[in-house]
Amino acid sequence: MNIVKNNPAFARLQAANVLNELGLAISYVIIPLTILTVYNSPFLAGLISALCLAARTLSAIFSGAIADRINPSLLLKASFGAEFLLWGALALLLYFQVANVYIIALLSIIVAAISTIDGPAEFVVLKRIMPTAELGAATSITEARSSTAQLVGNPIGGALYSLGGAAALGIQAAIHCVAALCVPQVRDACTPGAEDTTRAPRFFTEVKYGFRLVFGDTALRHLMYVSSIANLGVVPMSFVLLTVFQQKNTDSWIIGILLSCFGVGVILGAPLAARLSSTVRLSTLLIIALSMFVLTTLGLIVGSAHPWSAGILVIISGLALPALNSAITSYTVAVTEEKDVGKVFSASGVFGMILAPLGIFVAGVLLAHVGALWVFLSQALVMALALALTRIFHGVGLKRCVKSKESAS
């Protein structure tokens, strides 16, 4: 934690992002619950969730190049501020009872698209304020921060929903406003003035260049293949559990706690993240994480009968994730030049999440027509396929991110 005490800009960055992620975590509970409560339709809830995720995935194609060209502090403030205004507007529309499913979907999709700038902009800030030797520790803290925000945000979202959708969204909007005020100011790019004249006409070229950088690195390319298939099964899990227990008339605060259980697992696994990410091959971490996902998803066929047994299984599934994400993130930052960090993270994020919207949509259709059993079976099958691909790529991986950085430089 010394890097937080000794680096005020890093501390402010963490504060701003944890508040923003807390607000988004609240929305992930409030919006589906609103749709399920008002319209009693897993299909509509799944469709809107899928459209939001698709909007995030598509807009991420350009967000990295934007983050590399514009001051990242300004981008974060603009993004958090827009989320404040849009969620606040939806809160007012719900309060005056003029919001319908189309308005809810439209505003949720716009927020989802805007929020994709947050990640690339944050990593550009990290690259500018953190020494290379501290990037691994910084990304581990970032991973724990995101999990903590999810952990706290989900039950808060469930509890706030008991006050009504309008009140819940109004409080959430205020959180985004405070987040915008906390964003630190950082220096401009390494070559001030050169960006406008030499790089401005080549925006789409830079977007494509980010994808070329990702697929030009063997480890990153194979990781994208595996993660895109894995996320087809992993990402819909929260939506599936929320829908299953909402249909059982489970209290919203209990649903919120259940959705936070994955974050509990991530936090419990975080103490090992720094050590494992620097000593164990990425492929080995992938195998461990995906194996746990497959087993716990199969366990949910029986465990979903009660929220507490489901929560235990979800906690177990999250244990291996922080080491995996920390290793991938620190490796990606280490081998990427500062001017390309945003583009590379956007490109890898797009391919990692490209199939996830389909997963949520299919889950909504299956829940509406055949029930949770077939959803859990299909998710386990998809993750088993990702695990099989990981075994094929077992020879691809890195033992130490630091060594990768040294060889790259």
From TrEMBL:
PANTHER family: INTEGRAL MEMBRANE EFFLUX PROTEIN-RELATED, MAJOR FACILITATOR SUPERFAMILY ASSOCIATED DOMAIN-CONTAINING PROTEIN. The chain crosses the membrane at residues 21-39, 45-67, 74-96, 102-121, 223-246, 252-273, 285-305, 311-333, 345-367, 373-393. SUPFAM superfamilies: MFS general substrate transporter. This is MFS family permease. Residues 217-409 form the Major facilitator superfamily (MFS) profile domain. It is a multi-pass membrane protein. The keyword S-adenosyl-L-methionine does not apply. CDD domains: MFS_MefA_like. InterPro entries: MFS, MFS_dom, MFS_trans_sf. Keywords: Cell membrane, Membrane, Transmembrane, Transmembrane helix. It comes from the Bacteria. It is found in: Cell membrane. It comes from Corynebacterium felinum.
